[in-house]
Design a protein that fits this description.
By secondary structure, this protein is an alpha/beta fold. It is about 30% helix and about 15% strand. The model has no long low-confidence stretch (mean pLDDT about 90).
Length: about 210
């Protein structure tokens, strides 16, 4: 009789509008899918009509301790379907706000690629800012939900880096998933206290402003 596998405790949300054009995110997703402790959600394959199954997504999040956002950086942010997923799944009263405790104490990890090289993310580069300047929306989204935002794993210049570097990057990602939460840097990373949003600012029956 085969031993019972434990339920996945890592939920990877992989978002790429065209996997056929992906030379880094696709192998990263494949590496995650090879691990029994990881549940992978390929957003563009699962929801090609952008009709997200909120109940299914919330159930997967409830079981996970680590939530991974895996995607290329597009216009200094996430792909459109990934953003829609946040809008529809992380709702007031469930993910944040009064009585919204479903994600409190969990970890959020950004694993991203950029088309531009690291040198382009510099005050003298064409992106004008260090890459960290584009992270506050991710960090604050985690904070509002009472999640700990882990140091991102980013591969810059994904279009042009060598195959050896891609292979090493993918293997590092796989090992990190395998060994979570036994990462040395997490010992000094404090849990974030939730930024509670009062009901008057986000009513349960939301009305467009």
């Amino acid at each position: 009789m085969e031993p019972t596998r434990p339920d996945p405790d890592i939920y990877v949300l992989a978002a790429h509008p065209d996997w056929h054009e992906s030379r880094v995110n696709r192998p990263l997703m494949d590496a995650a899918q090879s691990l029994s402790r990881v549940q992978v959600q390929d957003l563009y394959s699962s929801y090609p009509d952008y009709a997200i199954d909120v109940a299914t997504e919330q159930a997967a999040l409830a079981k996970a301790q680590l939530v991974v956002l895996l995607h290329p950086i597009q216009w200094y942010s996430m792909p459109a379907l990934q953003k829609l997923w946040l809008d529809e799944v992380l709702v007031y009263g469930w993910a944040y706000g009064e009585n919204g405790n479903a994600l409190r104490g969990k970890d959020l990890w950004l694993v991203a690629t950029t088309g531009g090289p690291e040198a382009s993310y510099h005050p003298q580069g064409y992106n004008r800012y260090f890459f960290e300047a584009f992270l506050p929306p991710y960090e604050q989204s985690a904070a509002v939900c009472g999640m700990r935002f882990l140091p991102p794993m980013v591969l810059h210049g994904a279009h042009n880096v060598g195959d050896d570097l891609v292979d090493r990057h993918v293997e590092t990602f796989r090992q990190r998933l395998q060994t979570y939460p036994e990462w040395p840097e997490l010992d000094d990373l404090e849990q974030c206290a939730a930024c509670v949003v009062p009901m008057r600012d986000r009513p349960v029956e939301q009305v467009a402003p």
